[in-house]
Write a structure and sequence with these properties.
Elements lengths: L2 H30 L3 H27 L10 H17 L5 H29 L3 H44 L2 H9 L5 H8 L5
Helix pairs in contact: 1-2, 1-3, 1-4, 2-5, 3-4, 4-5, 5-6
The structure holds fe (iii) ion (3 copies) and zinc ion.
One fe (iii) ion binds next to helix 4 and helix 5.
Length: 199
């Protein structure tokens, strides 16, 4: 085996592990999203990710190897961060923007990895593998674009608007903000508080 072949196999194992981890994380991201469009984007990418695991298995077989994963430490870290971002923004108007930021970091890691793998497959003269890896690369790029679109069309605005709107309409922006920081202070709750009663 040439050293590039070994390197290729190593990185293939890395991404096989990465995709399995991502397929377990995506349902959590979908569940945490409050935007229906974002939920659908994560769920659609989950379907694609399951297909990618099968495509990677075909790549293994194209080089006469059995599918085998090798812990992708980067993905472990990216998912750990996603969990943290998720719990920090739960119930906040920033939740969808936050989930998109975590999702895009994963997509960029995948785009870099599959760009490299496809190039190596080409250099090794493995057309079948290059084609499969190119298909995966396109799906990752499309997933990243989709997340970008949702951020630009709604999620970022929503994250920004969460601060402004309530402050402007109520005139007690300071009060609202300080409550929001400790995870309280929705419009209805605030109504109840101003009546001086709490159930
Ligand atoms: Fe993927
Ligand atoms: Zn990795
Ligand atoms: Fe980081
Ligand atoms: Fe992906």
């Amino acid at each position: 085996m040439s050293s590039l072949q070994e390197l290729f196999l190593d990185e293939l194992k890395d991404m096989y592990d990465a995709e399995k981890r991502i397929s377990k994380a995506l349902p959590k991201l979908a569940k945490a999203a409050t935007s229906v469009e974002l939920q659908e984007a994560f769920n659609q990418h989950l379907e694609e990710t399951l297909g990618q695991i099968e495509k990677l298995e075909q790549v293994f077989s194209s080089i006469g190897e059995k599918p085998k994963g090798k812990t992708c430490k980067a993905t472990v870290g990216l998912i750990e961060e996603a969990d943290e971002i998720l719990s920090d923004n739960k119930g906040e108007p920033t939740i969808n923007a936050a989930l998109i930021s975590a999702g895009q970091k994963v997509e960029h890691y995948e785009i870099a990895s599959y760009g490299t793998l496809r190039e190596w497959a080409n250099l090794l003269g493995n057309e079948e593998a290059a084609d499969l890896l190119g298909q995966i690369l396109e799906e990752e790029e499309a997933a990243n674009e989709k997340l970008n679109d949702i951020a630009e069309s709604s999620a970022n605005e929503e994250a920004l608007g969460g601060d402004e709107e309530e402050g402007e309409e109520s005139g007690d922006a300071e009060d609202v903000k300080s409550k929001r920081m400790v995870g309280e202070g929705t419009g209805s709750r605030r109504g109840a508080l101003t009546k001086g009663k709490r159930k």
